[in-house]
Design brief:
The complex is a heterodimer of chains A (315) and B (416).
Chain A lengths: L1 E2 L19 H19 L3 E4 L4 H14 L8 E5 L5 H14 L3 E5 H6 L11 H16 L3 E3 L16 E4 L27 E4 L7 H11 L2 E2 L6 E8 L2 E4 L13 E6 L10 E4 L5 H10 L4 H5 L9 H8 L3
Helix pairs in contact in A: 1-2, 2-6, 6-7
Chain B lengths: L1 E8 L6 H11 L5 H13 L8 H4 L3 H6 L6 E6 L3 E8 L6 H9 L3 E7 L6 H12 L4 E7 L8 H15 L6 E6 L23 H7 L12 E3 L2 E3 L11 E5 L5 E2 L3 E5 L3 E10 L2 E3 L1 E2 L4 E6 L10 E4 L7 E10 L10 E6 L2 E14 L6 E2 L10 E12 L12 E5 L6 E10 L1
Parallel strand pairs in B: 1-3, 1-4, 4-5, 5-6
Antiparallel strand pairs in B: 2-3, 7-16, 8-9, 9-15, 10-14, 11-12, 11-16, 12-13, 12-15, 17-21, 17-23, 18-19, 18-22, 19-20, 19-21, 22-23
Classes of the chains: A alpha/beta (315), B alpha+beta (416).
Chain lengths: 315, 416
């Protein structure tokens, strides 16, 4: 377990004579507004929580939006069976501290029950989609909060904050509802649901700035550590029982950290000495490759990889 | 560091994508893998230069057609400011997308080709920005390199636009001669326009004063959500959560709750686990009142001597956003601040020609992407201001109750 090195400063915006909010406070206010709109207008929302940095920002915002009341909706996690143990540990700490209900939908169970088919070629990341849609249906969720950001990827740059999903869970980029001012339209028909992206307007750097400011717990794998890794497709991959070596691949020990957390078989790490949030912020500020381009095998398959997966109902 | 949201509109021909590409590139907001992907695609398509529009045109159908269809949001930052660009298409059939992009913008950027001067499209963009009350407008006279950096050309376009702008509501205008392709006056000044003494585009974006664009006088607090912990530690806590839409709320203020008209005093303002003395736009806060008055979502907290009058007869400008035309007698759902209700279209007064500003009073319907003035009667009273006074309490959306789709965007002229 790791927490930000700096102690949490006074997080209430200072009331200045010029009545100005910093950009981070503006983003926070906008996101909290979205959380409250959804809690007020939807019958059964839930928050998708991966334990990654974006979903930790989401938990923090939800905590603030309803304080001193508890977060008025459950947290849903899709367990791929290939998750990093450090991430699951952080998840449990957060859930415990906030006293929110955790629902775990397991890809293993979905395979066992024939909900998704593991043909040995499809990545766990992809099998998550069917597992997620099934969990939404089973629980009758009408709104799913996600930590997607528009700066991550081109298809996401055009996605709405309230992103409509039809009764097959699919996104239709050509039929998106206009979204004006801060007036969000939450009308859905039975069987449909809405994906909600409260941190749409945050960048990777904003996320790190905010985590540094808030001083909240993050999975330790974001920080520089020693790990046994090997090279695959130009990425450093973690040694793991789920990740059998292919001919020619050699395991060595390196000082690394992860920029994103996902399926252990697909998520690469980068060599880094950044062991505090401050050092990570420095690193992110000068990075020349996007976080997904650098370390996510699942987004590299084609130029429209994300758009295609989103249409199917991916996060 | 503060935040500036700006909207751009235009087609590939104007050099808009090149300009955005340059802002992103010169502020080092494009990543190597993004640039490599765009370079590879440009080569495979046989382009002679790197097509920076590929960076912004994100959807498959857009890349296939080579046009921008939807609003794309882009982000970059300089040491002084973070910027959110709402990048929208310029053609008339995408007016609704331009309106969407402009709705949240502090500043609008209109591009003209120096060789062509003002076109119908650039006039339309200015009209839409004015209609949406975007307080700052920048006219970029682009492709100055193709007119030999002629001061005379710049002056002519400047004057023509200033004359046209007198018919609009544009409180702040800057006209900047640029070459997006070569970068002159975008981030760096260059040596081609010694006669131009105004700011570069980036300098202007970084320094334009937006703090005064908010209304800090007329207190408006639409209640979003009632926070009731029902826990032992906070047994009696009852707070009204929302985002300040106007004015400044202070501890101790005498306030009125609308539409009930009950009065009370602000006992405290909470931001998470801290109490603050004041709240102002766009802060998200939780307000506690001294008295046990009935307050729920959709209500508004305002000052006793400065509160909007609940109104059900609404006179508004509408941008119609769906294929089936809007006709009198239509019944629609309406969302205004945190309040939902139903609305009946009583009359369509005129259709506004956004190219000529002509008001067509003979029409009795509004088609997709058309803008007009209408009269509505709502089932619930709206707690509203004119859009000119407050963009949050003066705006609403109309929703088709059968399909659930957002079909109209409204800006209130007056209400009674």
């Amino acid at each position: 377990m790791s927490t930000a090195q700096n102690s949490a400063p006074d997080t209430a915006p200072a009331t200045h004579a010029d009545y100005q909010l910093s950009q981070l406070d503006q983003l926070e206010a906008e996101s909290i507004h979205i959380f409250r709109e959804v809690a007020a207008e939807f019958e059964k929302p839930a928050l998708m929580f991966s334990g990654g940095k974006d979903s930790i920002v989401m938990m923090r915002l939800a905590e603030k939006a309803f304080y001193p009341a508890k977060i008025p909706f459950p947290v849903l996690q899709i367990d791929t069976g290939y998750d990093f143990p450090e991430v699951l540990e952080t998840r449990d700490h957060w859930v415990q501290r906030l006293g929110v209900r955790l629902i775990v939908a397991s890809v293993e169970d979905a395979i066992a029950n024939g909900i998704v088919v593991d043909d040995g070629k499809t990545s766990r990341n992809r099998l998550q989609t069917g597992t997620l849609l099934n969990a939404i249906e089973e629980n009758g969720f009408t709104a799913m909060f996600g930590g997607g950001r528009r700066d991550e990827e081109k298809a996401r740059a055009k996605e709405r904050v309230y992103s409509h999903r039809d009764d097959f869970g699919q996104w239709d980029p050509k039929m998106q509802r206009p979204e004006l001012w801060s007036l969000y339209n939450g009308k859905i028909h039975s069987g449909e649901h809405m994906r909600i992206f409260p941190i749409s307007n945050w960048t990777e750097l904003d996320v790190w700035d905010y985590l540094g400011r808030e001083g909240v717990e993050l999975p330790s794998i974001y920080f520089s550590h020693q790990r046994r890794v090997f090279q695959r497709d130009g990425m450093w991959m973690s040694e793991s029982e789920h990740n059998p070596l292919r001919p020619g691949e050699v395991v060595e020990e390196r000082t690394v950290r992860f920029r994103t957390v996902g399926d252990i078989t697909l998520t690469g790490c980068v060599e880094s000495e950044a062991d505090t949030i401050e050092k990570i912020i420095e690193e992110v500020a000068v990075a020349r490759i996007t976080e997904r381009g650098a370390t996510r095998g699942d987004d590299r398959f084609s130029e429209a990889a994300m758009e295609d997966r989103k249409k199917e109902g991916y996060f | 560091m503060d935040l500036l949201r700006f909207a751009t509109a235009g087609s590939v021909d104007d050099g808009k994508s090149t300009l955005i590409g340059r802002l992103l590139y010169d502020s080092k907001s494009i990543f190597e893998d993004q640039l490599e992907a765009v370079e590879a695609t440009s080569v495979s398509k046989g382009h002679e230069y790197t097509d920076l529009s590929l960076l912004t045109d994100g959807l498959r159908s857009e890349r296939e057609q080579g046009i921008t269809i939807d609003v794309a949001y882009r982000y970059f930052a300089t040491p002084n400011r973070k910027f959110i660009i709402a990048d929208t298409p310029g053609h008339v059939q995408y007016t609704r997308n331009m309106v969407t992009g402009a709705s949240t913008a502090d500043l609008g950027l209109v591009l003209v080709d120096a060789r062509q001067g003002l076109t119908e499209q650039s006039r339309r963009h200015a009209v839409l920005l004015s209609l949406l009350r975007v307080p700052h407008l920048v006219l970029c006279v682009n492709k100055m390199d193709l007119v030999d950096w002629s001061e005379e050309v710049y002056e002519r376009i400047h004057q023509e636009f200033t004359q046209f702008a007198t018919k609009l509501s544009i409180p702040d205008l800057e006209v900047i001669p640029i070459s997006a392709l070569n970068g002159d006056n975008v981030v760096d000044r260059g040596e081609n326009s010694p006669w131009y003494h105004g700011p570069t585009l980036m300098h202007h974006l970084e320094h334009v004063h937006v703090a005064s664009d908010r209304d800090l006088v007329d207190t408006r607090f639409p209640v979003q959500y009632v926070v009731r912990p029902k826990s032992d530690a906070h047994h009696d806590y009852r707070g009204y959560a929302g985002q300040v839409a106007g004015g400044v709320l202070k501890k101790g203020d005498e306030v009125v709750v609308l539409p009930s008209g009950m009065t009370s005093t602000i006992e405290g303002i909470d931001v998470f686990d801290k109490e603050v003395d004041e709240a102002f736009p766009p802060m998200s806060v939780t307000v506690r009142l001294a008295d046990d008055v009935d307050v729920s979502r959709g209500d508004m907290i305002a000052r006793v001597k400065n509160a909007p009058k609940p109104a059900q007869d609404i006179d508004a400008m509408i941008c119609w956003m769906t294929n089936a035309p809007l006709r009198p007698r239509a019944k629609l759902a309406i969302k205004h601040t945190t309040r939902m209700g139903r609305a009946l279209v009583k009359d369509i007064q005129y259709r506004l020609d956004v190219n000529t500003l002509h008001r067509d009073q003979d029409t009795k319907e509004l088609g997709l992407n058309e803008i007009g003035r209408i009269q509505l009667r709502t089932t619930v009273p709206l707690l509203c201001d004119s859009y000119a006074k407050n963009r949050t309490t003066g705006s609403f959306i109309l929703i088709d109750e059968a399909t659930g789709v957002t079909v109209g965007a409204g800006m209130i002229n007056n209400a009674s």
